[in-house]
Amino acid sequence: MLELARSGAAEGLWLRAERQTGGRGRQGRAWASPEGNLFVSTVVRVRPGEPPAATLALVAAVALEETVSTFLRLGGVVIKWPNDLLLDGAKLSGILLERADDAVVIGFGVNLAHYPTDLDRPATSLAAHGAAPDPGIFAETLAESFARWLSRWRDGIAPVRDRWLARAHPIDTALTARLADGSAVDGLFGGLDAQGALILRLADGTTRVIHAGDVFLL
């Protein structure tokens, strides 16, 4: 593990791995971790009166999207709820949040140089789109962006939510949400509620608010 150099803009401790032998994603899924990609984690301590800890997922997403856009200027990057990045419709990254008391560990995995080909959904890398940033430089840029968005979040979720919506797939995009109980809900993207939960507009005209689940574009 490598500790990133700290700067005035980067809050807290950041740790980066050159590669991982036991990388994992949500629900314990394996995460391919070849050298050349980004594997980095940081810790945020949530203070009394701040937005809900779960909304740090939005902070992580907008900071990562901003960082990717710094290196990839051709566009095509969108955020999928709550914090995946898609590049031309294929998965570019994953973010995992885990909480212990007031501490939230946020782990980022980004396909910089390589991407897996054995997933149940398309994946891609920055290198496949003509950009191949050094993982260390990318991580430093991400730490600085995350610090800026975290500072805004501490004063209220609204600016983060607005940025997330501006960088997400369009309103009325068809989505399916796979819930923890194994059921699935199909609907049209209706935005986010005030606390960052996903709003789905269903075929019968009602809405469903999704607080946790795997979301896929239809």
TrEMBL record:
SUPFAM superfamilies per UniProt: C-terminal domain of transcriptional repressors, Class II aaRS and biotin synthetases
Domain of life of the source: Bacteria
Catalytic activity field: biotin + L-lysyl-[protein] + ATP = N(6)-biotinyl-L-lysyl-[protein] + AMP + diphosphate + H(+)
Domain BPL/LPL catalytic: from-to ranges: 1-154
InterPro entries noted in UniProt: aa-tRNA-synth_II/BPL/LPL, Biotin_CoA_COase_ligase, BPL_C, BPL_LPL_catalytic, Transcriptional_repressor_C
Keywords noted in UniProt: ATP-binding, Biotin, Ligase, Nucleotide-binding
A Pfam cross-reference name: BPL_C
EC numbers on record: 6.3.4.15
Coiled coil: none
GO molecular function annotations of the record: ATP binding; biotin--[biotin carboxyl-carrier protein] ligase activity
GO cellular component entries: cytoplasm
Name assigned to this protein: biotin--[biotin carboxyl-carrier protein] ligase
Origin species: Sphingomonas psychrotolerans
